Amino acid sequence: MFIVLYQQNNRDLPRLGMAISKRKCSTAAGRNRLKRVIRESFRLNRDKIGGLDIVVLNRSAAASTNNKALYESLGRHWLKCQSESVKNERQE
Question: CB of 55 within 8 A of CB of 10?
């Protein structure tokens, strides 16, 4: 449902950016719903992620998907970000 880009930052806390495309989600209400879901999912998983800068991009399927599936998709992305953050901490 999403494309998640991430990069290590020099801070202890993660930062979130969103690029929700009007082309992939045509209604403002739909874009706002996606942003709310992304922010809430990020807030609930922020402690596990570590020091990463994260940008979330939407795919066209996300506009017509229910919130539960969106949270599950984001949860998988957060796990991947978490493992990357832990891997980077070990290297330092």
Answer: no
Question: Considering the chain, what is the average pLDDT of its residues?
Answer: 90
What is the topology classification, in CATH, of domain 2-91? Ribosomal Protein S5; domain 2 (3.30.230)
Farthest-apart Cα atoms in the chain, separation: 44
Helix axes 28-49, 67-91, angle to 10 degrees: 40
What is the number of other CB atoms lying within 10 angstroms of the CB of residue 20? 19
**What is the pLDDT at residue 92?**
60
Find out whether 74 and 38 touch, Cβ atoms under 8 Å. yes
Separation CA 48–CA 21 (nearest Å) = 27
Displacement of CA 92 from its chain's centroid (Å)? 25
